[in-house]
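SEVERITY: medium
COMPONENT: batch folding queue
REPORTER: lab tech (J.R.)

DESCRIPTION
The queue accepted two submissions in a row. Attaching both inputs and their returned structure tokens so the on-call engineer can compare them side by side.

ATTACHMENT 1
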Amino acid sequence: MTIRKILCYFLGMGLTIGCSKDHHLPQEKYYPFNYTAHYSYTNDTLKIVVKNPLNCPLRILISSPDKSLQDISEKFGTLTLKEKSDTIINFYLKTQNEINFKFDSKFGDLNKEIIKEKFSLPFPKNRTYKIIQGYNGSYSHNTDFSRYAIDFSLKIKDTVCSAADGYVVGVIKDYEYGGTSIDWLDFSNYITIYHPKSGLFTEYAHLNKNGSFVKVGDTVTKGQPIGLSGMTGYTTVPHLHFNVLVPDSKEGLVSTAGEFEEGYRGTELTENTTVKK
């Protein structure tokens, strides 16, 4: 028995040891959505235009590496745009040879009240899966962004369903492979859905290449199939990484604990627990 076959045998016994072919990190970086943000400077007037095409609030952070422009970026700080809205800012600025601003975006409105809701398990009815990793998992659920995420043992091309009604605000679908190095963390296919009634976001990660059934702007309903599970990004085994997220001033979004309407509490879903929908 070859070393690779031995590793695959242990993987079949439940140990998270990768046995797939090693792949190089993708050279191209994909982004979950696009938005418009630009500026112009004419006749001592700085004009900033920002447009939010998403069905969720979007925070735009304005910054500049130029010290002479930092007062302006601090003055405007973060612009919070409502769903599908835009804003134009005109600002007097004494004659300046060069203008250099940077825009960054984060989901959510920090002033919107968050109402916790129970979600549906993110797979079809009459399916049973085990938990691979639960809250505060030492492998990868140990940051503010993923602390309360749950990994379900979906296989490659198993159906993933929306956990609640909402709007699709982010999709990445073009990555093909995964890897066991932390360097693969930013190369996962995933879908992000905004739930306007609660103000929460849900994320469904490690999806198969071209495994998204939805696109940004789509409206989805609870239980609707939205994609196919896979093994892209930072992972050792095929699974669905499910995360409930709340807007945060520092991190953009942070993971938050949740419950499922099928009767499961997130705190109870520890490794090897079986769940059925």
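ATTACHMENT 2
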Amino acid sequence: MQRFVRFNLIGLVGIVFQLAILWILTALGVGYLVASSAAILVTVVHNFAWHRAWTWADRTPRIPPAIAFARFFMANGLVSLMSNLALMPLVAGALGLPPVPANLIVIAVAGVLNFGLADRVAFRAAVSSGDADAHPAPHGA
């Protein structure tokens, strides 16, 4: 439960960070899809650093930083980016919501998947020999 709370606290800070970047970029005239994608990419790096240092700090010594970041990006970053590319044109484009509220909706959809993917893919616990089944099933079982 503590890990889930930490994940969500960092996620909340990341949401504020992402929305601020989106707001600034769109205020400068950048299109909402490019601005939201850029905001996601910057926020993925921000969130990774905090999750590595705090949320999953007990697992990080066993995972080299480059591998942990690749896993995190492949899981959380791609889910967020693909959700953004798929849903922002619908929510901000077709429905006409302003970019920041539209992005909040997209974040909520992507967030449902992100904890599980971070826990099971990006920062998964290493399986030690003591964790292996002492009595594996015979072949064909």
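NOTES FROM REPORTER
The chain is about 75% helix and 0% strand.
No errors were logged for either attachment.
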